[in-house]
Amino acid sequence: MIAGSPIDSATFVIGLLVGGAIAALFRWARETPENKKDTKEERQPARPSDQVNFTTLSETLDLLQEAVMLVDPDDLAVVYANKRCDRFFRTSNEITGRPLLDVCRSHQLLELTQKAITSGSSVKEKLGAAEDDSRFWTVYITLGTSPKPEDPSAPKPLVRIVIRDDTEQIRTEQIRREFIANASHELRTPITIISGYIDNLLDGAINRPELATKFLKVARKHSHRTNRLIEDMLTISKLESGQIGQITSERFSLARCAEHVIDQLQPIIDAQSATVTIETDPESEFIVGDRFYWDQIIFNLTENALKNNPTQPIDVKISTRIEDEHHVVEVTDNGVGIPLSSQPFIFKRFYRVQKDHSQTIKGTGLGLSIVKRAVEAHGGSIEVDSVPHQHTTFRVLLPHTHTEESAPPIS
């Protein structure tokens, strides 16, 4: 069975069937006049409809997501390639007429093709691409049927090769497995703590009001953390699943949004003796977008600054401005900063910069991941500028058109 979605499987099979039809037309075109005579009567010359059929079949193959090639079994030269082959093999040169190895740069594919020719049987294999390529392929190779198997002088049937790029599917599966493993690990800790304190209560602590209250407060704290983690996982899942159509479009004040975030984080701000200020101007204060996700963006960036600097009072500034046709939103702090070696990974799910005290930073590990995906869902980008022990600035860049009151809904 061919792996992948039903549509992938269908186009994979169509590639083989239509490729076989084109192979038949190629076989007819390359036969010598002597070979075009059968035992009873000479075949008729190729009709105009044959060319029409070839064009129709070729156009059909050009619509497929798979790369489809026909290869001469004698010299392993490519005699036909659909348009997908140009993109698949990353070449702007003509493929037809070139040796197979020169086109695909994969000794594995060449060996599989030779194996199919030698054995006379179909071959299906999953393999990596060329040595300098990180893609993964599924290759299906079949041989056409000779119209005159009893005639050794008859042209050999062409080799049909259909290749599907499985790289995205494999990477998505790897990401899914990593997400499940990390999420399970993150959920296990608070659930284990809650379970432990409940066991202590059942073992007698419930009869000691002061101790029972302490245990219940700890259990409640970790239940809130579990709920936050689940909510964050649902949010990032929605953003990554492509449900962008659910993003709403409304004009609102970023200053009001930031004020709401500060109200939510006030207990942490007070506990750390931190200061959080807002700096906007009339031109850049308003934006068009989804208020829910912008609350998430500013909340996570501000909370990230506070929670990564738990032992020192810091200054956090939330600012907006218009710059070079972009609406710029920045969250800056003067805390511990982010090492240069960690900066490429900070938007990865569950990644923590300061692993030495990560247990003291009570976050979900998904905040910056949510920020990046929410910004991209609005057509923007995010970058970080940080110097350890000096400052960290997260900078969100949006096309200025998104801030106009007449801007079209985001979809």
From TrEMBL:
Record-linked SMART domains: HATPase_c, HisKA
GO molecular function: phosphoprotein phosphatase activity; phosphorelay sensor kinase activity
PANTHER family named in the record: PHOSPHATE REGULON SENSOR PROTEIN PHOR (PTHR45453:SF1)
Annotated keywords: Kinase, Membrane, Phosphoprotein, Transferase, Two-component regulatory system
Catalysed reaction equations from the record: ATP + protein L-histidine = ADP + protein N-phospho-L-histidine
Top-level taxon of the source organism: Bacteria
Record's keyword annotation contains Phosphoprotein: yes
Highest classification ranks of the organism: Bacteria, Pseudomonadati, Verrucomicrobiota, Verrucomicrobiia, Verrucomicrobiales
One cellular component (GO) term of this entry: plasma membrane
Organism listed in the record: Sulfuriroseicoccus oceanibius
Presence of the UniProt keyword DNA-binding in the record: no
Any one GO BP annotation for this protein: cellular response to phosphate starvation
Domain named Histidine kinase: residues: 182-402
Protein known as: histidine kinase
EC number(s) reported in the record: 2.7.13.3
Enzyme's top EC category: transferase
